């Protein structure tokens, strides 16, 4: 039987525009492990490290999808607010991780992310200053959907959703 996992969808929030360039799997993974270690000690770190991985990352939107074991996702989530920075090439960039959604499959997280992006775009649309901006955002809104190819994703280990 497949190990039961939880997927934690986060957003990297930073005032520093240079932070985007260092949003990479390794940097995010290290920052999360560091926070877990500080908050929960060695035991918590060991629990969270089993099958912990950065599953998906989009540096442009600052979206990160973390995977961990179902029985340790609460430990992981409780440590995420303590992520203070990402480190890359000996440079430190202050940032925080905002948890958006916890799901039982990658697909539920994708669906949530599409709805979330749509809401963000609608807010942008309301604050548009010119027609060109409006059309760009409306075009982005129309592209907020799951394609057939994505829906066949093989990561449907357990579909019982969060408790």
TrEMBL record:
<dbReference type="GO" id="GO:0005730">
    <property type="term" value="C:nucleolus"/>
</dbReference>
<keyword id="KW-0539">Nucleus</keyword>
<keyword id="KW-0819">tRNA processing</keyword>
<comment type="subunit">
    <text>Component of nuclear RNase P and RNase MRP ribonucleoproteins. RNase P consists of a catalytic RNA moiety and 10 different protein chains; POP1, POP4, POP5, POP7, RPP14, RPP21, RPP25, RPP30, RPP38 and RPP40. Within the RNase P complex, POP1, POP7 and RPP25 form the 'finger' subcomplex, POP5, RPP14, RPP40 and homodimeric RPP30 form the 'palm' subcomplex, and RPP21, POP4 and RPP38 form the 'wrist' subcomplex. All subunits of the RNase P complex interact with the catalytic RNA. Several subunits of RNase P are also part of the RNase MRP complex.</text>
</comment>
<comment type="function">
    <text>Component of ribonuclease P, a protein complex that generates mature tRNA molecules by cleaving their 5'-ends. Also a component of the MRP ribonuclease complex, which cleaves pre-rRNA sequences.</text>
</comment>
<dbReference type="GO" id="GO:0030681">
    <property type="term" value="C:multimeric ribonuclease P complex"/>
</dbReference>
<dbReference type="GO" id="GO:0006364">
    <property type="term" value="P:rRNA processing"/>
</dbReference>
<keyword id="KW-0698">rRNA processing</keyword>
<protein>
    <recommendedName>
        <fullName>Ribonuclease P/MRP protein subunit POP5</fullName>
    </recommendedName>
</protein>
<dbReference type="Pfam" id="PF01900">
    <property type="entry name" value="RNase_P_Rpp14"/>
</dbReference>
<dbReference type="InterPro" id="IPR038085">
    <property type="entry name" value="Rnp2-like_sf"/>
</dbReference>
<dbReference type="GO" id="GO:0033204">
    <property type="term" value="F:ribonuclease P RNA binding"/>
</dbReference>
<comment type="similarity">
    <text>Belongs to the eukaryotic/archaeal RNase P protein component 2 family.</text>
</comment>
<dbReference type="InterPro" id="IPR016819">
    <property type="entry name" value="RNase_P/MRP_POP5"/>
</dbReference>
<dbReference type="InterPro" id="IPR002759">
    <property type="entry name" value="Pop5/Rpp14/Rnp2-like"/>
</dbReference>
<dbReference type="GO" id="GO:0001682">
    <property type="term" value="P:tRNA 5'-leader removal"/>
</dbReference>
């Amino acid at each position: 039987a497949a190990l039961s996992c939880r997927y934690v969808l986060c957003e990297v929030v930073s005032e520093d525009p240079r932070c985007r360039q260092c949003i990479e799997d390794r940097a995010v993974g290290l920052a999360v492990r560091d926070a877990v270690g500080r908050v929960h000690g060695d035991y918590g770190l060991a629990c969270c490290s089993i099958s912990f991985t950065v599953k998906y990352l989009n540096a442009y939107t600052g979206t990160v999808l973390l995977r961990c074991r179902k029985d340790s996702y609460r430990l992981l989530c409780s440590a995420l607010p303590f992520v203070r920075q990402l480190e890359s090439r000996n440079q430190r960039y202050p940032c925080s991780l905002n948890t958006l959604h916890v799901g039982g499959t990658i697909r539920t997280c994708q669906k949530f992310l599409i709805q979330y992006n749509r809401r963000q775009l609608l807010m942008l649309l309301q604050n548009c200053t010119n027609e060109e901006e409006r059309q760009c955002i409306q075009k982005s809104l129309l592209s907020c959907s799951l394609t057939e190819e994505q829906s066949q994703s093989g990561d449907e280990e357990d579909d019982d959703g969060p408790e």
